[in-house]
Design goal:
Blueprint (H helix, E strand, L loop, with lengths): L1 H46 L12
Length: 59
């Protein structure tokens, strides 16, 4: 019986770690998306009134 409880605790710990890793990845991804979106908004706000000049190819 001792072996089964120990094994069960071990398996439960692995499962908990597995699902917690998804939460961490989700949190990191949400944070990165937020930072990227915020950066794009700042760039847009800063340069939206300026004329965009595109380089021309030499002829």
């Amino acid at each position: 019986m001792q072996y089964c409880k120990c094994t069960n605790d071990f398996v439960n710990a692995i499962i908990d770690d597995y699902f917690n890793s998804f939460k961490i990845r989700k949190d990191l991804t949400e944070g990165l998306v937020y930072e990227w979106t915020n950066s794009m908004e700042q760039i847009h706000d800063r340069y939206s009134d300026e004329e965009i000049i595109t380089p021309t190819e030499p002829t």
